[in-house]
Amino acid sequence: MAHSDLSARYAELTAKLISASGIYHAPEANPSGFIMTDEAYDAMRREVLQMERNHPHLVGTTDWKDEVGTTPSAAFQQVKHSVPMLSLDNAFSGEDLSDFVSRAKKELGLPEGEVLEFITETKVDGLSNSLRYEQGRLVRAGTRGDGTIGEDVTANVATINDIPQVLSAPFPDVLEIRGEVYMSKASFLALNQAREIEGEKLFANPRNAAAGSLRQLDPSVTASRSLGFFAYALGETSEPIAESQKALLDRFAAWGFKTTPGTAVCRTVNEIIKQTEFILEHRESLPFDIDGLVVKVNRFPYQEELGFVSRAPRWATAFKFPAEQRQTVVRDIVVQVGRTGVLTPVAELQPVTVGGVVVSRATLHNIDHIKKLDIRIGDTVTIQRAGDVVPQITEVHLQHRPEVSEAYVLPHNCPVCASLVVRDDAAAAICSGGILCSSQLTERLKHFVSRDVFDIEGMGGSRIEELVGAGMLSHPADIFKLHTFAGQLETFNGWGKKSVATLMVNIDQRRNVELSRFITSLGIREVGRTMGRLFANHYKTLANWRSNMEKVAAGDEAATQELLSIDTVGPIICREVAAFFADSSKLEMLDALCQEVSPAEVATSAKAENSPIIGKTIVFTGTMTKMKRPDAEADARDRGAKTSGSVSKATDILVAGPGAGSKLAKATSLGVKILSEDEWWNMVGATE
């Protein structure tokens, strides 16, 4: 593979991994479900890791390994996690579990035959949350967010009956308890039944419902949703409270927290596998959704010695269960049109219950997928909820096919606007109507107001659909002119004077946004949240970015090479950006938006000026005495460096405090520059 093709493939895969990770940790931003199965995500991740092993120059060109969550919403106060909330690596087979156990024993240097205890816990399909107690009282609750910064949901969490407001003594002065907020199957079905009666959009699954319920601005809504909480880990604590995970779970129970059923201490791989089989056998009888089993090294001293890679601990893994399957019949095949014009066929199914959720639709992805399985109307098919979320067809039972049956043909004209359907370079079917297609317009506007873009509170999907249908919205800029329709909006069913006034305030508050959000809002293909941030950090101002992109569209070689020099930008992204800026209708839309919105310039950190560590990769290990390790890492990033949780050939400097262990040994063997904490601060400058 040519160097440029290799880089482009690497950029494409890592961008997809980042996107899938973001959607997983913010399911309410994607109400129809996840875009990628666990198996597909893991296979893609393995491909990327293999590319990095074969081509070391790719390592560090993106921060995909550090993406463990999503950007916190501007609608909530932010919470900084002093101990990051990381993700877990996955296992899908007994062989994967055996490899995990072997690696842990090898890293710990345990002699052959010595027993290493593990503990298993059911992996509840919910939302991670961190509860901070001071002097035994709940003072703050935060979502995972991006792993370092989350959202303050204290008022909402206070309505969850499973969470004690006050702990019984004894307890540390400071104690952070991590766990999972979830919604039971029964509560989920009751909620959707109520929403259906009210004509509201249904939640796709209990996890999405839990996410939407926890992230309410009105705590009374959260209180009405019957959420639960399972405790499973510690964050920051002022003193040790247990020597093992089993002892920690016992302490949680003593304080009044629920812990997941099915916990077991295992001493061999076979015992772990037997426990996974036992839980899988009883999975459907559980009152809540689970998608696997978490396996952890039991003793905390061993956990500390094993440490972390950038995105996950080495001492734990998540064994993912296979998706649940059922048979049903394809009633019809309809076509949806997305915001970029891509036509996605969807199967309408005879309703069937899979994993406690009634499934009546399944994505067919694209025409090539339909042809591969030869899916036809009237076919009997096997469906599964991939990752227990997205329904998809995995098999067609030809022996049950009706005698009269025709192969499916994708329409030549858009089913929404009748514009011609064309094929792009990736062979995707595209509606050529652009925003003249009401479906594309609606989906683009939903993207524009979404959490990771302009984040306009109160501007949900159903309202966008209503406003487009009423002829009030035809461009993103029209959102900022809605005040001219305020009187008319007050007469809409379910709106009212107060909600309209609140919406107008929320819209006006978003007239000044970060440049990265503004760039993302334009809906350029291949330019999502991460790429928008990279563009903003590189070009600093809208005027500079636009000027350079117009030069790229005009074929300017210098501007094109500068664009390609940005991390993860390859020929595909370059082509899409050029196409956007060569389209006069897109530039008219951009001009109209600039009349209403003022994107903020990206300020250069004062610490980064003349910094000796700009562009270098830094790893901190051991105890930091001048500031906590997460703060030291944030300070290094402010000075222009990259930080990582593991040592590799790409590491430039290891900062080693007291208690440094395996990372110090590895850095020494690789010839990485090693500094004490004092040497580090002497090099970069005094702490502030």
From TrEMBL:
<feature type="active site" description="N6-AMP-lysine intermediate">
    <location>
        <position position="123"/>
    </location>
</feature>
<feature type="domain" description="BRCT">
    <location>
        <begin position="608"/>
        <end position="680"/>
    </location>
</feature>
<keyword id="KW-0436">Ligase</keyword>
<dbReference type="InterPro" id="IPR012340">
    <property type="entry name" value="NA-bd_OB-fold"/>
</dbReference>
<dbReference type="InterPro" id="IPR013839">
    <property type="entry name" value="DNAligase_adenylation"/>
</dbReference>
<keyword id="KW-0464">Manganese</keyword>
<keyword id="KW-0235">DNA replication</keyword>
<dbReference type="GO" id="GO:0006260">
    <property type="term" value="P:DNA replication"/>
</dbReference>
<dbReference type="Pfam" id="PF00533">
    <property type="entry name" value="BRCT"/>
</dbReference>
<dbReference type="Pfam" id="PF03120">
    <property type="entry name" value="OB_DNA_ligase"/>
</dbReference>
<keyword id="KW-0862">Zinc</keyword>
<feature type="binding site">
    <location>
        <begin position="87"/>
        <end position="88"/>
    </location>
    <ligand>
        <name>NAD(+)</name>
    </ligand>
</feature>
<keyword id="KW-0460">Magnesium</keyword>
<dbReference type="InterPro" id="IPR041663">
    <property type="entry name" value="DisA/LigA_HHH"/>
</dbReference>
<dbReference type="GO" id="GO:0003911">
    <property type="term" value="F:DNA ligase (NAD+) activity"/>
</dbReference>
<dbReference type="Pfam" id="PF12826">
    <property type="entry name" value="HHH_2"/>
</dbReference>
<feature type="binding site">
    <location>
        <position position="417"/>
    </location>
    <ligand>
        <name>Zn(2+)</name>
    </ligand>
</feature>
<protein>
    <recommendedName>
        <fullName>DNA ligase</fullName>
        <ecNumber>6.5.1.2</ecNumber>
    </recommendedName>
</protein>
<feature type="binding site">
    <location>
        <position position="180"/>
    </location>
    <ligand>
        <name>NAD(+)</name>
    </ligand>
</feature>
<feature type="binding site">
    <location>
        <position position="296"/>
    </location>
    <ligand>
        <name>NAD(+)</name>
    </ligand>
</feature>
<dbReference type="GO" id="GO:0006281">
    <property type="term" value="P:DNA repair"/>
</dbReference>
<feature type="binding site">
    <location>
        <position position="320"/>
    </location>
    <ligand>
        <name>NAD(+)</name>
    </ligand>
</feature>
<keyword id="KW-0479">Metal-binding</keyword>
<feature type="binding site">
    <location>
        <position position="414"/>
    </location>
    <ligand>
        <name>Zn(2+)</name>
    </ligand>
</feature>
<feature type="binding site">
    <location>
        <begin position="38"/>
        <end position="42"/>
    </location>
    <ligand>
        <name>NAD(+)</name>
    </ligand>
</feature>
<dbReference type="InterPro" id="IPR033136">
    <property type="entry name" value="DNA_ligase_CS"/>
</dbReference>
<feature type="binding site">
    <location>
        <position position="437"/>
    </location>
    <ligand>
        <name>Zn(2+)</name>
    </ligand>
</feature>
<keyword id="KW-0520">NAD</keyword>
<feature type="binding site">
    <location>
        <position position="144"/>
    </location>
    <ligand>
        <name>NAD(+)</name>
    </ligand>
</feature>
<dbReference type="InterPro" id="IPR010994">
    <property type="entry name" value="RuvA_2-like"/>
</dbReference>
<comment type="function">
    <text>DNA ligase that catalyzes the formation of phosphodiester linkages between 5'-phosphoryl and 3'-hydroxyl groups in double-stranded DNA using NAD as a coenzyme and as the energy source for the reaction. It is essential for DNA replication and repair of damaged DNA.</text>
</comment>
<dbReference type="InterPro" id="IPR036420">
    <property type="entry name" value="BRCT_dom_sf"/>
</dbReference>
<dbReference type="InterPro" id="IPR001679">
    <property type="entry name" value="DNA_ligase"/>
</dbReference>
<comment type="similarity">
    <text>Belongs to the NAD-dependent DNA ligase family. LigA subfamily.</text>
</comment>
<dbReference type="Pfam" id="PF01653">
    <property type="entry name" value="DNA_ligase_aden"/>
</dbReference>
<dbReference type="GO" id="GO:0005829">
    <property type="term" value="C:cytosol"/>
</dbReference>
<dbReference type="InterPro" id="IPR004150">
    <property type="entry name" value="NAD_DNA_ligase_OB"/>
</dbReference>
<feature type="binding site">
    <location>
        <position position="121"/>
    </location>
    <ligand>
        <name>NAD(+)</name>
    </ligand>
</feature>
<keyword id="KW-0234">DNA repair</keyword>
<dbReference type="InterPro" id="IPR013840">
    <property type="entry name" value="DNAligase_N"/>
</dbReference>
<keyword id="KW-0227">DNA damage</keyword>
<dbReference type="InterPro" id="IPR001357">
    <property type="entry name" value="BRCT_dom"/>
</dbReference>
